[in-house]
Automatic annotation (TrEMBL):
Species whose genome carries this gene: Brugia pahangi
Protein name: Fibrocystin-L
Family according to the record: Belongs to the CD36 family.
GO molecular function: scavenger receptor activity
Keywords: Glycoprotein, Membrane, Transmembrane, Transmembrane helix
Record flagged with keyword Membrane: yes
Pfam families: CD36
Any one GO cellular component localisation term in the record: membrane
PANTHER family documented for this protein: LYSOSOME MEMBRANE PROTEIN 2 (PTHR11923:SF51), SCAVENGER RECEPTOR CLASS B TYPE-1 SR-B1 (PTHR11923)
Record InterPro entries: CD36_fam
Subcellular location: Membrane
């Protein structure tokens, strides 16, 4: 339970199991065309590491573009530890939605996502020394909150005793 002003809300987050490639129910998100970036204990055969979703696999030969949490949130540390200056992910990187349980109103929501490109080591002069890796390109944060007036109106409804009725459109009561 979290509060916004005086409004109690339930926080819902994306569980780590959603992008866990080791779970049988997530095997449908794997593909035999997925390149190998890490060992089998980090990246099962044909799957991406935990915390990632392939958004570039629309046709064979497409670029390797992966969606993840910001700072590789919910991914193994081996993915981000090779980047200098890259901070370790924490709960501030979690996507969430806060809902007031009595009315079902969304009080706050935060979405954080990162676009990554899979770089494959190659035989060319430029790529032969580079290890295969997943490189972050950009991240996006989106936040919504109730404005002050709307929050005050919602507080009136939520904090009224349950036996008292009040028309939501006539909150000046």
């Amino acid at each position: 339970m979290v509060t916004h002003g005086r409004i109690p809300s339930y926080r819902f987050v994306i569980p780590s199991t959603v992008y866990n490639p080791f779970l049988p129910e997530n095997k449908g998100f794997c593909s035999r065309e997925t390149p190998r970036y890490f060992s089998n204990d980090i990246q099962p055969e044909g799957c991406l590491p935990a915390g990632m979703f392939d958004i570039g696999r629309t046709k064979i030969g497409s670029p390797h573009i992966y969606l993840s949490g910001v700072h590789f949130y919910q991914s193994p540390p081996q993915i981000y530890q090779n980047f200098t200056g890259f901070r370790h992910p924490d709960n501030s990187d979690a996507t969430y939605i806060d809902i007031e349980p009595y009315t079902g109103v969304v009080v706050s929501a935060f979405g954080a996502s990162q676009i990554n490109v899979g770089m494959i080591s190659g035989n060319s002069y430029l790529l032969n020394e580079m290890p295969s890796m997943i490189v972050p390109v950009l991240w996006m944060n989106e936040l919504i909150n109730l404005d002050g007036e709307t929050r005050k109106d919602l507080e009136k409804v939520v904090l009224l005793p349950r036996g008292v009725s009040c028309d939501f459109n006539l909150l000046k009561c």
